[in-house]
Design a protein that fits this description.
mainly alpha; two-stranded antiparallel ribbon; 35 helices
Length: 729
């Protein structure tokens, strides 16, 4: 009988969707980060059937040197044939380019010896299993395998003990010495840690050996631990049955309650039903199969046979929440909090508790204090889990900006705050707190890393990627003040919120940053991007938008000149020209405009000469109109009502109330200024420039300008430049 080893990743999870982190990945919202976590995965990437291969290469990297590329290890361990390896083994000095081979020849003869034995073992076993194997070939192979088994058993070191054990069992199994296989397992293999890769690779052989020895119950139990459903069914004389995912879980549970494959299965299954934040994704509806898993998970938790009981209660709680039963989910999660579980699971439970609290608590001062403690804990996890790889991804910026998952702790901070807490804070009228939380969610990890960089890709002539390297561009502050780069601070959740929430709320937040009231305020401010130049520019720009020029001067005057390279906009046109006219000096454009508008406003107030007063009014009106027209970058950070990755509803800037107020005030001021002029001909000429033909004919019929209008126009209409299509471009 052949025992085909179908590990659970193939036999059980092939029905589940595969998520791959590709180069062209859609933008994700914070609500799309996967929260359910019982098994460590790299971001959204799901391990494939080669996961054992990868894990083995990573283990070799850990045993030897972290500087050796995984691909170099794979080439030697998995791809190099025995004959070629024998040549490498015999060399006095290796002159090739493979880093793993070079390391072994120079520093690690022990591993070289092992790999020679392992490759020889595999070669001979493959020959014996060949359909072309004849009894006449048997003696030599049997003798060689015996020698391999003896050599592997005789190894008295520690470093490669588990690997030699696997080779011994493989050789003995091929020789049909099943009792020896079981003895080695009982004396050595069973004592290996549950997370040991070699132990997991031993299990199918030990299961098969027990079956050959007619120990069927033990065989089923070991196959269950290995996740080999097909072999379990065979041993139980149920071959050919099709089991659903949950049925398979129930079947395995009867024989191996602590099967190490359970976390992978559960995570793959539950994540099918989690909201996917990809803009192209749809939320999956809960199926009867999912509800069956809910009942089974509760059963496992209540039965209390497993070591990681908290995992099963956590799973049941999560499914209950997905099904809209938040109160029930909270109760079941409390059982998980009280039950046995690994630290990994307990941390996942704690994250889920924070999430459920956002839905169950009234946003009072009491909840504020609770949230503060929860965020302190979550922030500690962010700091403690920060690796070099995570730091590089953060510095590169692409995944963070696009909302792609790559760091669980930061994902959870963003999902909980941006998708749940901030919207509810706004509903509760706690706008300042919402802004503080959004700022932390967007900027905590970036500020913690404190650097900016990018990945560079080298391609060969065949358009194939041959190398990806990370280039450090310097500190985050240097990057921000260099206008060669784009600045994410003008497109993230915090900015979009503060840019749309109104001047009064913006200034209230500004004051809370300058003078925090509580320890929570100081905690949040310290974990966001609260640079004075950045906030002063936002406040000043909104003051320009609200036509509060004195305040605009105060805030914009506090922005350093060096900050101009940080802005995402620049001025090309003269804001005081009737039509688009290039401006010679566009430096410090917001402050200079605010200063001139303030001066004009004061002059209008104190000037008594009507013609001079009219001149100031006209100039003010032109500047006001243009600041929402073709010089929109004075009052806005973007033009239009939509862009990729939007978070809040964008302003239809040319139609919003502030813009309409500005356009109306400008038009009224032009009319008033012309009416004020003592020289009617000049007044009519001014109105002609503004295309106010009706007003000219009605108010100044005696002028030469009016005669021209009556002779040149079929109808008399007042046109407004701001209403002309493409005027604002």
């Amino acid at each position: 009988m052949k025992f085909l080893v179908y590990i659970v990743l193939i036999s059980l999870l092939s029905l589940l969707p595969q998520y791959v982190d590709a180069c062209s990945v859609a933008w994700y919202s914070p609500g799309g980060y996967y929260m359910y976590r019982v098994y460590e995965e790299a971001g959204r990437q799901v391990p494939d059937a080669e996961s054992d291969l990868l894990q083995n290469c990573l283990a070799w990297q850990q045993i030897t040197s972290p500087d050796i590329p995984i691909e170099a290890i794979r080439e030697i361990v998995y791809l190099m044939p025995l004959e070629e390896f024998e040549q490498l083994y015999a060399l006095d000095k290796y002159k090739g380019t493979n880093a793993f081979a070079s390391y072994l020849k120079e520093h690690d003869p022990e591993t070289l010896d092992f790999l020679l034995l392992a490759k020889t073992n595999e070669y001979i076993r493959r020959q014996r299993n060949s359909r072309w194997y004849y009894p006449s070939m048997k003696t030599g192979c049997r003798s060689t395998l015996e020698e391999i088994a003896e050599q592997a058993i005789a190894y008295d070191g520690v470093r490669l003990k588990d690997r030699y054990l696997l080779q011994a069992v493989r050789a003995l199994f091929t020789l049909g010495r099943y009792g020896q296989c079981v003895d080695l397992w009982n004396t050595q293999g069973a004592n290996l840690s549950d997370g040991n890769l070699m132990k997991r690779m031993l299990l199918p052989y030990i299961a098969g050996a027990n079956y050959r020895l007619n120990h069927k119950c033990k065989a089923i139990a070991y196959f269950a631990q290995a996740g080999d459903i097909e072999s379990m069914l065979y041993c139980a004389e149920r071959s050919g049955e099709h089991l659903s995912t949950v049925e398979a879980l129930e079947f395995v549970y009867r024989y191996a309650p602590d099967c190490p494959e359970f976390p992978r299965i559960l995570q793959r299954f539950v994540r099918k039903y989690e909201p996917d934040g990809c803009c192209y994704g749809d939320e999956a509806e809960l199926t009867e199969e999912c509800r069956r898993l809910y009942r089974f998970a509760l059963h496992v938790g209540h039965e209390n046979k497993v070591h990681n009981r908290a995992m099963w209660y956590y799973t049941a709680a999560f499914i209950a929440e997905l099904d809209g039963r938040t109160d029930e989910a909270s109760y079941i999660l409390s059982l998980a909090e009280k039950s046995r579980g690994t630290r990994f699971i307990k941390e996942s439970v704690a994250v889920f508790r924070i999430y459920l609290d956002t839905k169950l608590y009234v946003f009072s001062d009491t909840y504020d204090e609770r949230l503060f403690e929860q965020l302190r804990w979550l922030d500690e996890r962010i700091v403690a889990g920060l690796t070099q790889e995570v730091a590089q991804q953060t510095a590169a910026g692409y995944k963070l900006i696009s909302g792609i998952s790559y760091y669980y702790w930061n994902d959870m901070l963003r999902r909980i705050l941006l998708s749940e807490v901030c919207p509810r804070m706004l509903q509760a009228g706690k706008t300042t707190r919402a802004l503080q939380l959004a700022n932390m969610a967007d900027n905590r990890l970036r500020e913690l890393v404190g650097r900016r960089g990018h990945y560079e890709t080298r391609w060969n002539d065949k358009k194939q990627c041959i190398e990806v390297t990370f280039s450090d561009l310097g500190t985050l502050e240097h990057y921000r003040r260099n206008n060669e780069y784009g600045n994410e601070e003008y497109s993230n959740h915090f900015f979009e919120l503060i840019d749309s929430i109104g001047l009064a709320n913006t200034l209230a937040y500004y004051r809370r940053v300058a003078a925090p009231r509580t320890e929570f305020d100081r905690f949040l401010n310290a974990r966001g991007y609260v640079h004075k130049d950045y906030l002063n520019d936002i406040a000043g720009t909104q003051c320009l938008r609200a036509m509060r020029y004195e305040d605009a001067v105060r805030y914009l005057g506090a922005v350093s000149r060096s900050f101009e390279g940080h802005l995402n906009t620049s001025l090309k046109w003269d804001p005081f020209a009737l039509e688009q006219t290039a401006i010679a000096d566009c430096s410090d454009f917001k402050y200079r405009f605010a200063d001139q508008m303030q001066a004009l406003e004061r002059s209008i107030g104190i000037t008594t000469d009507p013609d001079r007063k009219a001149f100031f009014m006209l100039r003010f009106a032109i500047g006001l109109r243009n600041s929402f027209g073709f010089c929109w970058m004075l009052t806005q950070y973007y033009k239009g009502e939509y862009y990729w990755g939007q978070v809040v509803e964008k302003r239809k800037w040319e139609y919003e109330i502030l813009a309409q107020n500005a356009f109306n005030r400008s038009a009224q001021m032009i009319t008033s200024a012309c009416a004020m002029m003592t020289n009617h001909e000049l007044a009519a000429q001014t109105l002609l420039e503004y295309r106010n033909y009706k007003t000219i004919v009605e108010n100044y019929p005696e002028t030469e300008v009016a005669k021209f209008v009556r002779g040149a126009c079929d109808t008399y209409i007042d046109y407004h430049l701001e209403k002309i299509k493409n005027y604002g471009q």
